[in-house]
Amino acid sequence: MRLPSLALLFAAALLSTAHAGPQIELSAEASRPAANDLLRASVFTEASGGNPAELARRINQDIGEALKLIRAYPAVTVRSGQQYSFPLYGQKQKLEGWRMRSELQLETQDAAALSELLGKLQAKQLAIGQLSQLPSPATRAAAEDAATRDAIRAFHTRAGLIAEQFGKPYKINQLRVSQQGSFQPPMPVARAAHLMQAADAAPMPIEAGESQVTTHISGQIELSD
User: Fold this and answer.
1) Cβ count within 10 A of residue 22
2) Does residue 63 lie in a domain region?
3) Mean pLDDT along residues 190-210
4) What is the reported pLDDT for 189?
5) Is the CB of residue 107 less than 8 Å from the CB of residue 40?
6) How confident is the model at residue 119 (pLDDT cuts 50, 70, 90)?
């Protein structure tokens, strides 16, 4: 009893394919700017010497002083970053000492606060490792939504133009949407802490700028009779 039903379904599928109109692949894209309103910075302290316990005490003291300063800026969040120590070897692989480093990761949407804080941290013997500028999740989502609306309109415009040349209406068979962004890579700005004393806690210049968010749409339309 199942064979006739399967035969009917197969015949219907063949009939549907036979009556399908021309199928055309096309794509469209649109971009929108997104303000780099989220700032991330890493600051670190490091020291070398022959006594690991003394090095740890100095590193912990520097980090403790930095945390006290950072807590005075409620708009800036902080978390621990990489922390490591490794031996220093001289000739004939003889152990000559140790090097330790501890890092803090900062994040904020207040560029002025971060600029001022980084200047003060440098005066406290901390060096800046990297500075990243990117859109916050909310800002990026808003730009992606706007770019998606623009890309969909562009896709419909292009599909309508193609269908018009054939003098036929069209329908969308399938659609793929993808997003990408061109964001500034992290800027390495590390300098020796003792060289930063001359800055005398001067704010660090920060120019956030913008990133581009792009929505790409590709798909297939079918021209109807």
Assistant:
1) 13
2) yes
3) 60
4) 57
5) yes
6) very high
Token pair of 133, please? 């500028």
Query: CA–CA distance from 23 to each of 47, 109, 159, 171, 218 (Å)?
Result: 67, 48, 11, 10, 13
Provide the CATH number for the domain around residue 121: 3.30.70
**Rg of the chain on CA atoms, in Å:** 30
pTM to 2 decimal places: 0.74
pLDDT per position as a tens digit, 18-77? 566 889 999 999 999 999 999 999 999 999 988 888 999 999 999 999 999 999 999 999
- H/E segment holding residue 63: helix 52-70
Q: CB within 8 A of 36, min separation 6: which ones?
A: 133, 134, 135, 183, 184, 208, 209, 210, 211
pLDDT score recorded for residue 188: 57
Question: Which residue in 35, 209, 37 sits closest to 107, CA to CA?
Answer: 37
Structural domain including 118 reads: 38-135+184-209
Tokens of 130: 């990297």
CA distances in angstroms from 49 to 15, 61, 225, listed in the order given: 83, 16, 83
Question: How many structural domains are present in the chain?
Answer: 1
